[in-house]
Design a protein that fits this description.
This protein has one domain. It contains six helices and two strands; from the N terminus they run E-H-H-H-E-H-H-H. Helix 2 crosses helix 5 and helix 3 packs parallel to helix 5. By secondary structure, the protein is mainly α. The N and C termini lie far apart (56 Å).
């Protein structure tokens, strides 16, 4: 009995083509956070999604938030502005002490493929930061800021089977942060 190959498609077959590669430098703790997140997805009955899928879904989630990008000068300002749009100035968020420490010796490079729409969004943020009087950050530093926000919110990623599913979970965790 022959098995039809089209019926056994893996979820990675649905990946977009024409992605742009952006190298991101992650510290060891953040890298381990991604690994633990993927393992928790697998243990709870989902798939172990690659880091690039998770980061793409995180960018899509932040794109849906309609963050005010005026007068942002640094990555810390961007982080505060995204959190303010989430929290709506009602809830204080954890300090940077809760984030992993950045040691120069423990950095790892992860290549992330993102689409043109996401590139345009990241470039819009960088351009707004430059014209607001700050310096123009790299795409990877903006992505690192989004990753810091995700670490602070601690999303529940159990049972995730697709990039779209992880995007919905991120959005759900962002909404839960605004309720408290």
């Amino acid at each position: 009995m022959r098995v039809n190959k089209k019926m056994n498609k893996r979820f990675r077959a649905d990946v977009e083509k024409n992605l742009f590669r952006i190298p991101i430098i992650l510290d060891k703790d953040t890298y381990n956070w991604f690994h633990n997140l993927s393992i928790s997805m697998k243990i709870s009955g989902g798939y172990k999604l690659p880091k690039s899928y998770i980061i793409r879904s995180l960018v899509n989630t932040v794109m849906r938030l309609n963050v005010n990008l005026k007068n942002i000068k640094t990555e810390a300002d961007l982080e505060k502005r995204v959190l303010q749009s989430l929290i709506n100035s009602r809830r204080s968020y954890r300090s940077k002490q809760d984030l992993p420490n950045k040691n120069q010796n423990n950095n790892l490079v992860v290549n992330v493929g993102i689409n043109r729409k996401q590139i345009i969004f990241l470039d819009k943020i960088a351009r707004e930061m430059r014209f607001s009087g700050g310096k123009k950050p790299s795409r990877s530093s903006i992505l690192n800021t989004f990753i810091k926000i995700a670490i602070l919110l601690k999303p529940d990623m159990s049972g995730i089977r697709s990039e779209r599913g992880s995007e919905e979970r991120f959005l759900q965790s962002f909404r839960n942060a605004t309720k408290n």
